[in-house]
Every structure is written in structure tokens, then in C-alpha cells.
Amino acid sequence: MTDQTVYNFSFTRPNGEALKLSTFKGKVLLIVNTASKCGFTKQYADLEALYNKYKDRGLVVLGVPSNDFGGQEPGSDAQIQEFCQVNFGITFPIVSKEMVKGKNAHPFYIWAKKQLGFGTAPKWNFHKYLVDRQGHLVDYFNTFTAPDSSKVERAIEHLLL
After folding, report:
1. What distance in Å separates the CA atoms of residue 33 and residue 81, rounded to the nearest whole number?
2. Is 38 designated active site?
3. Which of 6, 21, 30, 38 is catalytic?
4. Predicted structure pTM score
């Protein structure tokens, strides 16, 4: 399975349709597990700003709501979408709520942990995975690394060259 890329995975859109990550071939992806009732929820604003800054150069931010940490995403998919739109004007894609930890985690998260190592798995909301234009998982940023940090922006800019 070493030849596997993120393009082998898909998430479900809130309308029930599949969102194949292969849709984003040639793009740089920042995949983030999110939550609406978390102390880090304000990162939504930074993620939207990051998306707007780099989307024309090929960045896609993908929000993956999860209720795995502290029960901080209790809402339905419709409630999550509304919350993100009303409070943060989110325009990047947000998929249906998923599990991101444990044996029942979404297959992408199980794969990501195997690719980058045990310590790289989400330990809280707003954990970020960075994917290059070829679909390879290249880095991760923990919850405490803000989307607008120089570390994240440098890594994205390097992949957008």
C-alpha cells in the first residue's frame, strides 16, 4: 500500500454525495478536523483567510467535522454548515461529520497515521494534514499551530511553487 495517495480516499458531502479526493489532483490540500464548540474554533477564520489567500494558486482547505474530542461537534451536518457560514463565512468545502481517531476512524485518518507515524494522529480538534500536488501526505500541524503561522504558510508556499 505504499503507492497509495490521498486520491484513494473519499469523504461524504453533507448532501450525501461522495467527495473523492481525486477531485483535487494537482492541488495542495490542507485537511483539518474541525469542531464548532472548541476553544480553537476561531481557527475557522484563519483557515478561510488562508484559503482565500492561496486558492488561486492551487490550495484547497478541506474541513472534516468531528465529535471525537470533548464532544465539541454535537450538531448535524446541516447545523455545522450553517454555523460555519453564518459565523465565519466559510467557502472552502466542509464534509459530513467523521470519526478521526480510534479503530473506527475514517480510512483517511487511519492511513495518515500509518504514513506519518503514531505521534502524528489528531490529538484534538483543528489538527492539520498537508498534502502535495501529487497526493502525498507531506506534513502535519497540531492543534496549537495556527493556520496563519509562518510555519504553515511556508510549507504551503513551498508546495505551491
Report:
1. 14
2. yes
3. 38
4. 0.96
